[in-house]
Amino acid sequence: MKEKTTIISSDTERKDRIPPGQHLTDKWPVLHYGSIPRLEKSKWSLKVFGLVNNEKILNYEEFTSLAAVLVFSDIHCVTSWSRLNNTWEGISTGELKTLVNILPETRFVIVHAAGGFTTNLPVNEFFEPDVLFALKHNGEYISAEHGGPVRLVVPKLYFWKSAKWITGIEFTGKDKPGFWESAGYHNHGDPWKEERYS
Ligand SMILES: Nc1nc2c(c(=O)[nH]1)N[C@H]1C(S)=C(S)[C@@H](COP(=O)(O)O)O[C@H]1N2
Ligand SMILES: [Mo]
Q: Whose C-alpha lies nearest to ligand 1, atom 19?
């Protein structure tokens, strides 16, 4: 089997890894709005659309046949817990670039999840090398409560940007604040700048 690339998220190399106002936990709390969608792999698909030349809908098998990576990162939740030393396995967001041909007017990415949930981020931050569509956490498939079968992980921003149960990726020229961003959370969410609420 081919050796998977491991990407070390740069924030894990800081001397002090705990952002201001955060405290450590060894547990992994479950947080989200609404009930847990149970998405079957056989029915799951990811729609990649918006400012692209060739829109795509990938089923689970097609999606998971893309090259896999490992990412080592910390988690910082805006409610103040941080969980260090997480290993994620999945598909790098960079894989989408070769698939759909993203148009140069693209400035933001809207991440869509089951039940109408969305979150927004600048396109350059979506394509940071440590951002991935995670299938596994610490060697085990991500459970439904933590966003399986596929969740996004954006290590450098507060964890609400790491959408669970993702179903679509939209490239756009215009920013569209997502679910939590419209409910008073910061539009960007850098934990090192304490961009918590707006
Ligand atoms: N689809 C979806 N994803 C979501 C959320 C949500 O409400 N819906 N909440 C976010 C928030 S606020 C947090 S803190 C993390 C929590 O992830 P966890 O339950 O795996 O710890 O998921 C994020 N992703
Ligand atoms: Mo959160």
A: 30
- How far, in Å, CA of 54 to CA of 58, rounded? 12
Question: Distance (Å, rounded) from C-alpha 73 to C-alpha 50?
Answer: 29
Question: Which residue, by CA, sits nearest to atom 13 of ligand 1?
Answer: 160
65 alpha carbon – ligand 2 mean position (Å): 31
Output the pLDDT for position 1.
62
The full 3-state SS of 119-179, as one line of letters, equals: EEEEHHHHCCCCCEEEEEECCEECCHHHCCCCEEECCCCCHHHCCCCEEEEEEECCCCCCH
- Ligand 1 — pocket residues by CB below 6 A? 28-33, 77, 113, 117, 146-147, 159-160, 162-165, 180
Domains of the chain from N-terminus onward: 44-193 (3.90.420.10)
Threshold 0.85, pTM exceeds: yes
Where do we find the tokens 């008073």? 184
Average pLDDT over residues 69-83: 98
Strand partners, 120: 110
The rounded Å distance from CA 161 to ligand 2 centre is 9
